[in-house]
Specification:
The structure is a homodimer.
Chain A lengths: L6 H14 L3 E7 L5 H12 L5 E7 L4 H7 L5 E5 L8 H9 L8 E5 L16 E7 L6 H4 L1 H6 L2 E5 L11 H11 L4 E4 L8 H14 L2
Parallel strand pairs in A: 1-4, 1-5, 2-3, 2-4, 5-6, 6-7
Helix pairs in contact in A: 1-4
The structure holds guanosine-5'-triphosphate (2 copies), magnesium ion (2 copies) and zinc ion (ZN) (2 copies).
The site of one zinc ion has 3 residues of chain A, from loops.
Chain lengths: 211, 211
């Protein structure tokens, strides 16, 4: 009989395949429009000469995000879920088959924009990275705690707009520390490039450092 | 045997109860942090002398949103889903039992911040109203079409920030027209009050006009 693979099975298999090819994978999550793709664009432009990068994009519909990454000349594959509110490990396994993994050191998986369930589905990634935008308000860690708890890195984006909002950086940082004291927090602007030196340094250390 | 009520059963029952008490109900949806609660605050301040208002709040955790509405002195009940990414009709039925419906003309149900599945669950409301923030980008109707298709009203919020973003109003309006040409679109700022006269006029007409 055909035993339906669980998400854990697929995730475990993905992790083996990626480890076998020496590829580090990050699962990038946020609300819709927090700036995941814009952050990827600037990250690729900063690191492409030092690290071999690849991207798997996840959306309900369209290739819009993959097209933005494709313009940068790195391998990218677009998953269209058709309506599903998160990526799962089987979708990612299929996408991995379409990418030249032996030519990639660091693979970003941009998940569907959703601050709830993507954090519950292991894709086979090494780490979860989330983006929070200052325009969304500083109460999101308290109101949507799961993803903030699961993330190893939190990028607080759109800092160029912070003075035009009532975003309270201290309240946000306090709530994050309560939920996930070990999280690495970067305050960035994908528009102006603020904070990207620190973020890219962290990425380089992560790719080169970890076994 | 106890037959498990489906969501449709609960929604139908809610609709009967609300119609019986002459209450109109709107299901308010958006991404996290688009401004649903801020829009409700300003709407209540503008209309409380003309229309008897009530609110059901839906979040994963905390009473933060209900506390903001309670300060305005109208009936409000907070649903905490614990982790669920959308409200369902049974949760709303329980919440309705906690509200003085005979004292309410217009009931807002603020759904969990999520641009995907809340649009798939009928709560027993009359209409779906969604909020899109200019800070999220103008590509959301194309990328997350379901909710834009289901909404009768679309409030484009944070217009006070539009010149600080690359939000293309024409592209957004074109994409909305492709998906849902009948949708009523209001361009508003819950911060400055821009567009609220039109929105509140529409609400008054809706509450007074419809059978
Ligand atoms: N002002 C400002 N705008 C930004 C910044 N980063 C992204 N944006 C804008 O935010 C909007 C959404 O950016 P995206 O990168 O498409 O967001 P996303 O998280 O990838 O969105 P989805 O994939 O649809 O969930 C666009 O209009 C961007 O131009 C930033 O640092 N500052
Ligand atoms: N500049 C500006 N900020 C706004 C506007 N409306 C809301 N905000 C801000 O946006 C952030 C989120 O607003 P909320 O009203 O809490 O958003 P929400 O959709 O209710 O969020 P959730 O319930 O957590 O999904 C807060 O920091 C608000 O101050 C607006 O019109 N302009
Ligand atoms: Mg994107
Ligand atoms: Mg709210
Ligand atoms: Zn989901
Ligand atoms: Zn859901």
């Amino acid at each position: 009989t055909r035993i339906l693979k669980t998400n854990e099975d697929w995730a475990g298999r993905n992790r083996e395949v990626l480890a076998g090819k020496g590829v580090k994978a990050l699962n990038l999550m946020s609300s819709p429009g927090s700036g995941k793709t814009t952050i990827l664009e600037r990250t690729v432009e900063s690191l492409r000469d030092e690290i071999r990068l690849g991207v798997i994009e996840g959306d309900l519909q369209t290739e819009l995000d993959a097209e933005r990454i494709r313009r940068l000349g790195i391998p990218v594959y677009q998953i269209e879920t058709g309506g599903g509110c998160h990526l799962d490990a089987e979708m990612v396994a299929r996408a991995m088959e379409q990418l030249p993994l032996e030519e990639i050191d660091l693979l970003f998986i941009e998940n569907v924009g959703n601050l709830v369930c993507p954090a519950e589905f292991d894709l086979g990634e090494d780490l979860k990275v989330m983006v929070a935008s200052v325009t969304e308000g500083h109460d999101k860690p308290a109101k949507y705690p799961l993803m903030f708890r699961e993330a190893s890195v939190i990028l607080v984006n759109k800092m160029d707009l912070v003075s035009a909002t009532d975003f309270d950086m201290e309240a946000f940082a306090r709530d994050v520390a309560k939920i996930n004291p070990k999280a690495e927090v970067f305050w960035v602007s994908a528009k102006t490039g603020a904070g990207f030196e620190e973020w890219c340094e962290w990425l380089k250390g992560y790719v080169k450092g970890k076994p």
